[in-house]
Amino acid sequence: MSIAAGMATGLAKAVKSCAAALLPQDCFLCAAPADDKLLCPSCAAGLPYLSAARCPVCALPTPDSSVCGACLKQPPHFDATHAVFRYEAPIDSLVQALKYAHRLASADFLGSALAQIAVPLRPDLIVPVPLSRARLVERGFNQAVEIARPLARALGTALELDHIHRRRDTRPQASLPWKERAKNIRHAFECDLDLGGKTVLVVDDVMTTGATLDELARTLKAHGASRVENRVLARALKDRGPL
């Protein structure tokens, strides 16, 4: 499929999803009346929010909100991670509906949840994790960009979409064993900005091992960023292990 044809297919799916989103809808999860919202009040109240007691660096739960052993032993290139949910049902269904079924109505709901995290950071720019060109053509949009838009509006900070790229089409991280993910993503990003002294907020939908976020943070710091923090919608809770 050509790039033009791929983009046209993705755009058609997105337009269809947007049209559906304009119609009165029932709850995405239980089909109960939702007053034109994605979820009914009951389902929204039952979402798996992440515990407040977690590692400030990687967002894995810790008993007293201290830095976890993995981050002490092998500190990642990013400085902090803020997450909203545990990556489990039904958040996994909402994320997958956005990524693979072009349910763009999910993006506003998920992005608004992301924007509600109260942290003191005032970033200089927001960087959604880039997709490769091939993946962008296939999907028609970048889900990290879509969930970052409400956050950018809330913080009054511009999204950086033009100067930080994924320069090669890596294998999907979800298809790989955890220990292979860091190797798969190594040197995958490029940046043509001078980030000297800047604070960067990186946005993604799900953090699993942290390998992608770590590699992107490494690239950003190599171009001068003084601090890199992650804001992710959901955190997988399996122990990260070595990146």
What does this structure look like?
Helix 4 packs across helix 5 (105-115). The protein has a four-stranded parallel beta sheet. It has a two-stranded antiparallel ribbon with strand order 3-4. The chain has 243 residues and is of the alpha/beta class. It contains nine helices and six strands; from the N terminus they run αααβααβααβαββαβ. It has one domain (3-235).
Could you estimate the helical fraction of the residues in percent?
25-40%
Number of DSSP strand runs = 6
Count of separate structural domains: 1
Distance between the termini: 35 Å
Helix count, per DSSP?
9
What is the CA-based Rg, rounded? 18 Å
Question: Strand portion, in percent?
Answer: 5-15%
SSE string: HHHEHHEHHEHEEHE
Largest sheet: 4 strands, parallel
Please mark out the parts with pLDDT under 50 across 5 or more consecutive residues, or reply none: 1-23, 239-243
Q: Which structural class is indicated by helix and strand composition?
A: alpha/beta
Strand order of the largest sheet: 1-6-5-2
Overall morphology: globular
Give the overall pLDDT as a whole number: 85
InterPro entries: ComF/GntX_DNA_util-trans, DZR_2, PRTase-like, PRTase_dom
Keywords: Glycosyltransferase, Transferase
GO molecular function: glycosyltransferase activity
Protein name: Phosphoribosyltransferase
